[in-house]
Amino acid sequence: MAKLSVRELDVHGKRVLLRVDFNVPVEEKDGKQVITDDTRIRESLPTINLLRERGAKLIIMAHFGRPKGKPNPKYSLRAVADYLHTIINHPVAFSHDVIGAVPEEIISHMKPGGVTLLENVRFHAEEEANDDGFSRELAKLGDIYVNDAFGAAHRAHASTAGVAKYVSQAAMGLLMEKELKYLVDELANPARPFVVILGGAKVSTKITVIKSLMEKADTLLIGGAMAYTFSKAEGIETGKSLVESDKLDLAREILDLAKQKGVKFLLPVDALITQEFKAGATTRTTSDRAIDEGWEGVDIGPKSIEIFKKEIESAGTVLWNGPVGVFEIADFAKGTRALAETIAQSKAKSIVGGGDSVTAVKQFGLADKMTFISTGGGASLELLEGRELPGVAALTSK
Ligand code: AMP
Predict the structure, then answer these.
(1) Do 6-176 and 189-384 show the same overall fold?
(2) Does the pTM of the predicted model rise above 0.85?
(3) Class of the domain covering 6-176
(4) Does ligand 1 come within 6 angstroms of the Cβ of 225?
(5) What is the DSSP string of 113-157?
(6) Does ligand 1 come within 6 angstroms of the Cβ of 298?
(7) Which of 142, 301, 355, 391 is an active site residue?
(8) What CATH code is assigned to 189-384?
(9) What distance in Å separates the CA atoms of residue 66 and residue 75, rounded to the nearest whole number?
(10) Catalytic residue among 140, 202, 240, 369, which?
(11) Average pLDDT of the residues in 93-99
């Protein structure tokens, strides 16, 4: 059901409790925390700017790392508050308590356009427990709630879901709206042929996604170590490749399902193999799907690259989740790179659905050539599985 958008709110002079995903990677340098990738903070800016321009008093909530329900200076959001101050060029008050008298006092002095960041909501065990009392305490700090934390929307926590019950209006932010537009709306009625590329390490983590996408896609291209579980299920040698031996029945079930549905389900026809899983190792290309004893598959082979490229070139929509090889090691990245370049050049609408394929696309410098890149790993996977996210379900319906 369509949810209320932040664009539709009257926020002037009101306290808006905004949940964002500020869970950025940091490194310690000279005893100080330094943010190494600020993508998530920047992705929240359209919503932050919109609310400030419209005169909201902005109270921002976020989590950071895994402090396990206890205050821990290592996971403080103070450095993020300072960083936000510099990029929005406006002071950001920091409340070292998440709930209670400290934030209430700070907020009581706020002016329209002002910004307060609350300390890490996960300093309270009640956050992840989606505790009702804690949700009410959070809700006391605002009049309206906006959720823009797509990366955490698959979690039913107090600040991502519970709090919505205790405010007058709960709306999605601009990032959340954009993620849902591409991962749900666009894929409900995709330009055809709709080609899905699935890779990564394991079949088990992608099983529901494969089944769900089989209902919508015309073609599925399978790469990564996942492909070897299918090989093994079909009685083909896999050497010492990563295989989930307890998922062979599942692999057979998927192969049968593809036949039943008349979906093109393409597995790699060759592989790049190595005896040593490291940069600079000797590699060989197989002539077919079989991988010799003592060798392991680390990428799709040249014939597979050509076949997959042809499918991408004729696609209307391409959805990509998971690298087709161990792209982190340059010698094993050729397949993933070739597919990324083909997608970048194709006219198809291209959606990169979270996780490691996003890292790969960025590493190749092709991010701006994609129609849409999701910011959420787990959340995007759950959407592609056809599930409703708790952080979205909790919002006000239109
Ligand atoms: P996932 O999180 O399931 O999407 O898996 C991503 C990971 O799969 C990446 O770190 C890749 O290095 C890894 N991967 C892809 N292909 C292979 C392979 N052939 N053997 C081992 N790992 C692989």
Answers:
(1) yes
(2) yes
(3) alpha beta
(4) yes
(5) T-EEEE--GGGSHHHHTT-HHHHHHHHTT-SEEEE--GGGTTS--
(6) yes
(7) 355
(8) 3.40.50.1260
(9) 8
(10) 202
(11) 98
Q: Where are the domains of the chain?
A: 6-176, 189-384
Q: Whose CA is nearest to atom 2 of ligand 1?
A: 200
Give per-residue pLDDT as tens, 112-143. 999 999 999 999 999 999 999 999 999 999 99
Q: Is the pLDDT of residue 174 over 90?
A: yes
230 alpha carbon – ligand 1 mean position (Å): 15
The terminus-to-terminus CA distance of the chain in angstroms comes to 8
Find the mean pLDDT for residues 280-304.
97
Give the Å distance between the CA of 17 and the centre of ligand 1: 38
Contact (CB, 8 A) for 128 and 122: yes
Beta-bridge mates of residue 351: 319, 372
> Of 40, 178, 232, 289, which one is the catalytic site residue?
40
Position in ligand 1 atom list of the atom nearest CA 271: 19
Task: Read off the pLDDT of residues 48-70 as tens digits, 9 standing for 90 and up.
Answer: 999 999 999 999 999 999 999 99
202 is catalytic: yes
Instruction: Kindly tell me if the per-residue pLDDT of 87 is higher than 80.
Output: yes
Q: Which residues pair with 117 in a beta bridge?
A: 60, 94
Measure 299 CA to ligand 1 centroid, in angstroms. 9
